[in-house]
Amino acid sequence: MSFQKVRGFHDLFGEELRKFRHVSNTVREYLKRYNFEEIILPVVEYAQLFERSIGEFTDIVQKEMFVFPDKKGRLLALRPEGTAGAVRAYVENKIYALKPYWKVFYEGPMFRYERPQAGRYRQFHQLGAEVFGILDPIVDAEMINLIYKVVSELKIDAHIEINSIGCRKCRPAYREALVEYLESVSGHLCDVCLERKDKNPLRVLDCKVPTCQQAVYHAPKMVDFLCDECREHYEKLKEYLNMMDVPYVENYNLVRGLDYYTKTVFEIVSQELGITIVAGGRYDYLVEDMGGPPTPAVGFAVGLERVALLVKDLPEEEPLYFIVAFDEVRDYALKVADILRNEGKRVELSYKRGSIKKQLELANKLKADYAVIIGPDEKSEGSITLKDLHTGEQKKVYLSTSL
Ligand code: HAM
After folding, report:
1. Where are the alpha helices (DSSP H) in 39-170?
2. Each residue's pLDDT tens digit, 218-239
3. CATH architecture of 320-398
4. Cα of 229 to ligand 1 centre, how many Å?
């Protein structure tokens, strides 16, 4: 009997995992520079948390959540994203009473029952960051700058799209104007958008079906409906981004697939694959809606697999020292391995016995950089013979001296 992995789930290992870790480490490095602290959030939450925060009529809640009852019949869900859990943690742990504001990040697997394709999985990983408690667009600008720095450092060809989707004051009038417009072009909308038109009309704007894209080309734009506060927020954000030389394009149809957003929304889109690799925005009502005090917030999440897919260069690995030894001095080989590892070196001890030639073949197979050759002479002298496997150069090194 043999088993296969579940569709949409994947094993991460080898080069792919090295790229994945490189992305994660790079994001973490920048989060450290911006003074974010980490939180480890549960993978499972009550399903209602996501229904209430992401929105009842979103694709995630309607079609993509892994929901199951616990033994008492309560509905639980594998988290489809991290923001809802972070908000829950902020409110439940009363962090608002402990800190003037909270800059926090999380990393881990997320689950969405989507149709798997390149860069789209049913279990994927996000590294997300959120700032709770600050309304100033300077934070939106810092978040976008942070992620721009990460993408630039990883040498990924991508562009930043921004938009403002207003607030509860200005969005209703826009929604009305949009629905009216959508009615007038309803003959050109796909079946899904015909439904969205009434339940979640903003989502029609980012439908990928060409006829829908054409139909919304002349749709009213949210930016023309922004109230003074939202307009000023958006203008300031752009001013700050310009100040920091962060390039961006305004995409008036960028609305995001989760209902909690207000004001700023942004995405980083890969030029190479045409997919969104990082996404985020502001959600100024969510904390209050989830039972906390009124608390503005803004955040983003990096899709780690997607970014890893685009990484071309990996940092050089530490050189590998491979110890090959005559049978009778394997005790000394073990000791040498210990000494080298204590110095912080990456060391592999030949587990296979046999001729030195055979062991050296193994060193090449394992892509070692150096062979550390050990025979009776080396043991009696307290030395090793170090062979550079790239150049073939060989020298004797006494263990009191550093390699
Ligand atoms: P999201 O746009 O749903 O936003 O997801 C963020 C990122 O996760 C996407 O840009 C993509 O890179 C990655 N992602 C999403 N679904 C998949 C999938 N099925 N397979 C692989 N990667 C995927 C959020 O989740 C928000 N919580 C972001 C946020 C944080 N907004 C404010 N704070």
Report:
1. 47-54, 59, 83-92, 95-98, 137-153
2. 999 999 999 999 999 999 999 9
3. 3-Layer(aba) Sandwich (3.40)
4. 28
